[in-house]
Amino acid sequence: MDKNNLNQIGLSRHLTPQQWRTLVDCCESIVPVPNKTTLSERGTKLSKSLFLVEGFMGRFITYDVTDRKQLVAVEVPGDFVDFHAYPLKRLDHDVVSLSDAKVAVFDHVVLQEIFDQDVELCRTVWFMTLIDASIQRHWTYRNAAMRALPAIANLLCEFRQRLMHAGMDTDSSFELPIQQSTLALACGLSVEHVSRVMRDLREGGYCSMSNTVVQIHDLRRLEEIAQFRTDYLCPSHD
Amino acid sequence: MDKNNLNQIGLSRHLTPQQWRTLVDCCESIVPVPNKTTLSERGTKLSKSLFLVEGFMGRFITYDVTDRKQLVAVEVPGDFVDFHAYPLKRLDHDVVSLSDAKVAVFDHVVLQEIFDQDVELCRTVWFMTLIDASIQRHWTYRNAAMRALPAIANLLCEFRQRLMHAGMDTDSSFELPIQQSTLALACGLSVEHVSRVMRDLREGGYCSMSNTVVQIHDLRRLEEIAQFRTDYLCPSHD
DNA sequence: CGTATGCTTGAATCACGTCAACTGATGTGG
DNA sequence: CCACATCAGTTGACGTGATTCAAGCATACG
Q1: Mean pLDDT for each consecutive 10-residue tract of chain A (238 residues)?
Q2: Residue A147 to residues A151, A194, B32, B158, Cα–Cα distance (Å)
Q3: Is the CB of residue B186 inside 7 Å of nucleic acid strand D?
Q4: CA A38 to CA A60: how far, in whole Å?
Q5: How far apart, in Å, are the Cα atoms of B16 and each of A175, B13, B19, B236, B237?
């Protein structure tokens, strides 16, 4: 895949066309990533950042003692993966692909150069990492304050909304190449309980998930039990 | 209080002395904030950012339907409050003081000017907001993956560590001007259960909390049951 | 004084985890 | 083609961690 074919999708739409071109020009390469690939491990020093072109990525925090893997964040197409690694250098978690994916690679040194020349671009990218932070706060909220059924419903609504931003058609159904066990890891629930919740959502006429496709049966009612709000996903820039 | 008395504490220590001076020079004023003051409400447009000189601040997400207030983040002295509001402008949550506090106020327009002149400073402040994000990921983890007792223990360890960074003496005890109900809001637990957990921590010889002081009885064992790790609080810059 | 406010404790209930067994789809090698 | 393994999902029985409701107790405060 040629880097000139890179489309401005998802969060990257916050950039002006010129800024986007500046960024794309310094893209090192575009590489395919198979499912379940560990892209970076906790504590190792990073020198590259990624733009997620296709597929899903997950951030996992693991404590060796308990061996519990907790999924604390998911990136969808159009997200910048580890652009915050650029100033942070070392991360406290692992980044693993949740599906076959495709990523555009950026070198930190090159990024530093273009940011030096364009404070506005630096600020905009900063802004985008802050939307991630906003989503992260919501994940904190969801895990602490919501019961299993509304939580799962809420997560599905979030995915739908974010994939919509990424330009995918999500009217009555959408592709979601992750499985129940992944939802369980994201919400801190057991797979068995997620299975029961999915049955309730199905039988309640809200939505259903089979293979890699989520079918929305009644969006209004789904968003209602999910207590879904969009403000944390798309804060206005002005 | 005069702004020339502002000490470089906590996260602000990531700035060089010159950067710190640049920032302090553009501080508008230093104002006292009484306990339980709402500094900014969800959705309202912000034109100022704050540096927390003294006291504690909390970020609350509330859904009107359920009326459940969830505490998703806490700021300690030395933290920049809403510096990320600078590019974000509107927040998805409320910011409320958890104790009597003192804040230094910065105007966004002035900030924009000094960032325009110093990309490096912009980058460093960005870096600091990313440590917040790292903490946020850990809160997501704690809420999803940890049981009540280790979770509370972990939160107390986090406060201890962060207050240590802020230059407070926290050898065998430290000031923590928040109450059990606040811990409950932070961990998504009921006040009654937090009370029981605190009793277990006390009787187990780990730590105890009375009024506004946390007494550490056995730090090693406390950090052990808390599964405490410091990496998410102080990532290295290089 | 009485009345909040913060903490504590007990008993009943419930949401969710754990364990175990089973299904169906997919794949693999003989 | 069949025997077998694997993996995602499902279901039931049971245990438990945490909530809820209710009451009581201490301290601070108008």
Answers
A1: 82 91 94 93 90 95 82 96 74 92 94 91 86 94 98 98 89 93 98 98 97 95 96 70
A2: 6, 11, 39, 26
A3: no
A4: 10
A5: 48, 7, 5, 15, 13
Q: Do B237 and A89 touch (CB under 8 A)?
A: yes
With left for phi above 0 and alpha for psi between -120 and 50, is residue B211 left, alpha or beta?
Answer: left
Is this model's pTM higher than 0.85 or not?
Answer: yes
CA of A196 to C1' of D12 (A): 12
pLDDT band at B158 (very low <50, low <70, confident <90, very high): very high
Q: Which among A7, A30, A26, A27 is positioned nearest to A17, based on CA atoms?
A: A7
Q: What is the pLDDT of residues B201-228, one digit of tens each?
A: 999 999 999 989 999 999 999 999 999 9
Kindly list the structural domains of chain B, giving each domain's residue range(s) and its CATH number in brackets, ordered by start.
Answer: 3-139 (2.60.120.10), 147-225 (1.10.10.10)
Question: Considering only CA atoms, which of A60, A98, A49, A93 is closest in space to residue A76?
Answer: A98
**Nucleotide showing the shortest C1' distance to residue B149 CA:** D17
Distance of CA A210 to the CA centre of its chain: 21
Q: What are phi and psi of A99, to 5 degrees?
A: -160, 175
Residue with tokens 């505490």: B71
> Which nucleotide C1' is nearest B199 CA?
C8
**What is the sign, positive or negative, of the torsion defined by CA atoms of A43, A44, A49, A50?**
negative
